[in-house]
Structure formats: C-alpha cells, structure tokens
C-alpha cells in the first residue's frame, strides 16, 4: 500500500499517512467526488490517546460513509461510522462529540458511491491532548497520571471528562428546593417537593426534562443502532438502583438486530431479527429471558411456524377471554417482503397463528414504532419504511390503530414527519415519538438528516370518557379532536374527524 505524506486532501482514490501531533484531514474545498475511496492513517505512539474532532461533516445519508478504526488497519476495532449531516446545530456551544482512540493510532476510511455528493468533511486530530480543550472551563494537567496521559481539572460547578457538564446551577435553589452534593457525583439533591437537574421543577411537573445516568458499565459498552435493547453484551441496567449487573450469556441467543422484545410477568420474549453470524440472516427464532434467574431459553413452538421477520414490533396483551398472547406487527420477510399481517403467539399453548384482521387496508413496513393502550385495548402504529406504488419504497408518516378485541384496523391522522427506526411510548393518553431516520432523498439533498432529534406528541384523545367506556372500545363518542404536536418546533396540527364506534 503506497502512502502519501505531503497531502491529506481526498481527491479520488488515495491513502495518506499523518505523523504530526496535531493536524486535520478533509475532502477538499468543494464537494467531494463521486466514487471516492480515501484512507488516512494517523500515527502517534503506542497507547497514546488520539482525539478526532468533526468540525464539519455532510455526506449522502446511508450511502457515503466515514469509518474510524482504533488501530493501524481495518482489522483493528471499528469504533465509529459517520454518514449524513453531522454538524453542530442550534446552540452555538453545541458540538459533535469527539471520537477517541487509545491505541496511539487511528485509521479513517471514506467511501462514496455514484449518486449525489455533498460538501464533505473537515476533521481535526490531536495526540495526547485534553478533550475539547476542557471546554474553556478547566485546565489540562498531567498531575497524578501514571500513564502520562493528560486530563482536565475542572472549575467549580463543572464536571465531566471535558468539563462540559454543569452541576448545582443556582445552588440548587438552596435551602428551599435542595442542596448541592460536592462530595459524591457533584449534583443537586432535591427536597421531596422539587425535581430536575437544578431542583427548579415542582413535583408533579408539567415540564419534561432529560436525565443522563452517570453510572456506566465497568466493561466496554459497544454502540448500537437501536435504542430498544434491555440486555446487551452480558449486561443489564437496573432502573431503580441505577446500576449495571452482569448477566450470564452461556447458551444464549446469537447477536442480532431488528428483533422485538415483549415483557410478560417475569419473562422477556425476543422474536425474530437479523442474525450477525449466519448467512441465512433473518430468523423466526423465539427466545425467552427469565429476569429472576437471568437465563435464556429457546422456545420450540408447535407448527405452523411464524414468518421470519426483522424490523417488526410486538406487544403482549390479554384477549377478551383472558388468554395472554404476543401480537407481532408487520416487519420485513426475505420471502414475502414487507408484510401487513398481525401474527399472534399464544403463550400458554406455545403456538402461532396469523390474525384475520378487518377494517381499513393498511400497508406493512419495517422499522415502525408501536404502543399498546391497555385501557382501550388498542395498538397505535406509526411510521416505518414501506413499499409504495410503482415499485417504489420510502418513509411514511402514517398512523394506524389496531383494536385487539375486534381485530380491526383504522387509519388516523398523519404526523407530517416521515421516519423509521424511531421509538415511541404512551404516557397519560399521549403517544410520544422520538428520533429515527428521516432521510428520504434519492438524487438531490434536501437537507434531511440521517437521524432526527425530533420529539413529537400525539393526543390519542379520550374527551369526557370514563374508564368503563374506554375498556369497552377505542372510541365511543361521535366527535372529538386528534392532535399531532412537534415538540421541537412548537408547531401544532389539529385534525377534526369522526370517531367510529367499535
């Protein structure tokens, strides 16, 4: 492999070696070229910390990629893959997190296909430097460092590896709201009637807020494409104690993605998905994880077998006769493509069947989200990647409602923001949708990001309804209001429609 030493600008097919303690690499001053393959080897010294800072990155989503390896070859651990628009956004001090290697080397490989191109990237690197220059809120130090590596000594009321996490703002509203714990994790300890990072929100509160757990697993935690997993690499996170525990993995399932998880009593039912280790890929396997015993066991259902699927969703529900079943919605089959079927797994009889559903005609898809409202006996399905007309495929913003007891579908209001691989939960009659892939460009970029930070809310609507009425069916009133709300932009769309009696 021939390496160029004097230049680090990617033109077509090149390999570069960078040996300075700091520098940058880029695709050039204009859009990168089609069918480009470029590789950079940043060479430090063994066990040195090397930091990569993405000052700008804009490539075709899902097709043009930058791969980052922690080592001097493609056989080293792959630690990051970038695609799409990955640039600072909104607030001036918000930046893309640094990528860190610890081997003393970093190999970066960029690939673009023959479709459209974008402005490319500018990536700065530094060897044995403090993260993000301590964010201007600390000093870089080697004190008490056995390895000689530098680290940040943060100013008061700032913490984190890069001194980028504020704590105890406004002194936690002391003494009425709480107090600042300076000895432990350096955070606010709120009084019983207050909550939030700075104890400024009452209990209960009408304002939502994010919390990032500071406890991390002791073992290395790998990244993932889906944020639905409960068990990963032999580790399980306890939400009540905020601790990680080790889970025995002997005789467990093979690694997979695109599967579904559903909880029933003390068991988690995992169905389908795409296997990493087999060329057969999509599977119809059913595995059960028992939480108290922390053991995996395969299920061998009675024939006929279910569809082998990936990108589906599942919920455990109780039918009108009290029978517990797991309902599997949609998904991609390597044989039948995108299916619009509902599969039903009977937990007691260990058998599968395809539900004969009525009502509206719905489109099956991959990577949608779904939530189950136990009070009304309805499952709400949003978004996904689907087969459209004229042999075309794309993202959708559809919202469907499936009635568990009557086995009927209804089409509800569209969100206006198509996506797939997002997540959704139901809270107090509101469907909350977060994130996902929103990219749907094919020949020209319209500025869509690969992955969205949108946070949407949909009011499923129970106006003047009693619990008894909701238990008998999804909707019983003649009129009402359904709402989609984009929480990020604050836009609110309302649709008046007749509710259909169940």
TrEMBL record:
Keywords assigned: Disulfide bond, EGF-like domain, Kelch repeat, Repeat
A Pfam family: CUB
InterPro entries listed in its UniProt record: Beta-prop_ATRN-MKLN-like, CUB_dom, EGF, Kelch-typ_b-propeller, LZTR1/Attractin, Sperma_CUB_dom_sf
Domain EGF-like: 126-164
Residue ranges of domain CUB in the record: 10-128
Source organism (scientific name): Collichthys lucidus
Protein name (database record): Attractin-like protein 1
GO cellular component: Golgi apparatus
Top-level taxon of the source organism: Eukaryota
Disulfide bonds: 130-140, 154-163
């Amino acid at each position: 492999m021939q390496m160029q030493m004097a230049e680090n600008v990617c033109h077509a097919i090149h390999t570069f070696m960078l040996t300075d303690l700091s520098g940058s690499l880029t695709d050039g001053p204009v859009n990168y070229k089609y069918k480009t393959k470029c590789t950079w080897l940043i060479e430090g010294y063994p066990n040195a910390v090397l930091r990569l800072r993405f000052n700008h990155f804009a490539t075709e989503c899902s097709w043009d990629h930058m791969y980052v390896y922690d080592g001097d070859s493609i056989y080293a651990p792959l630690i990051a893959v970038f695609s799409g628009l990955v640039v600072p956004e909104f607030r001036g001090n918000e930046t893309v997190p640094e990528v860190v290697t610890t081997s003393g080397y970093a190999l970066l490989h960029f690939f673009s296909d023959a479709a459209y191109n974008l402005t490319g990237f500018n990536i700065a690197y530094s060897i044995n430097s403090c993260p993000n220059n301590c964010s201007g809120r600390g000093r870089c130090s080697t004190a008490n460092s056995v390895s000689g590596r530098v680290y940040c000594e943060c100013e008061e009321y700032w913490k984190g590896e890069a001194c980028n996490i504020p704590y105890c703002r406004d002194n936690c509203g002391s003494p009425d709201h709480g107090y600042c714990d300076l000895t432990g994790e350096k955070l606010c300890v709120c009084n019983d009637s207050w909550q939030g990072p700075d104890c400024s929100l009452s209990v209960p509160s009408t304002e939502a807020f994010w919390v990032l757990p500071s406890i991390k697993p002791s073992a290395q935690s790998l990244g993932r494409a889906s944020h639905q997993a409960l068990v990963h690499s032999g580790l399980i996170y306890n939400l009540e104690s905020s601790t990680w525990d080790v889970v025995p993995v002997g005789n467990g399932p093979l690694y997979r993605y695109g599967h579904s998880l559903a909880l029933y009593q003390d068991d988690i039912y995992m169905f389908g998905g795409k296997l990493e280790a087999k060329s057969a890929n999509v599977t119809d396997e059913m595995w059960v994880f028992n939480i108290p015993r922390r053991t995996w066991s395969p299920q061998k259902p009675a024939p006929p077998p279910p569809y082998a699927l990936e990108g589906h969703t599942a919920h455990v529900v109780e039918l009108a006769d009290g029978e517990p079943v797991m309902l599997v919605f949609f998904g991609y089959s390597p044989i039948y493509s995108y299916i619009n079927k509902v599969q039903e797994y009977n937990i007691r009889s260990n058998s599968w069947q395809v539900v004969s559903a009525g009502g509206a005609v719905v489109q099956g898809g991959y990577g949608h989200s779904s939530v189950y409202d136990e009070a009304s006996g309805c499952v709400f399905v949003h978004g996904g990647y689907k087969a459209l007309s004229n042999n075309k495929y794309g993202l959708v913003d559809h919202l469907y409602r499936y009635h568990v007891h009557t086995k009927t579908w209804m089409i509800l209001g569209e969100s206006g923001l198509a996506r797939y691989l997002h997540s959704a939960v139901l809270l107090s009659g509101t469907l909350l949708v977060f994130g996902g892939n929103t990219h749907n460009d094919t020949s020209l970029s319209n500025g869509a990001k690969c992955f969205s930070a949108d946070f949407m809310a949909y009011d499923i609507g129970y106006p003047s309804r009693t619990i008894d009425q909701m238990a008998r069916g999804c909707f019983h009133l003649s009129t009402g209001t359904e709402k989609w709300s984009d929480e990020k932009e604050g836009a609110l769309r309302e649709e008046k429609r007749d509710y259909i009696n169940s």
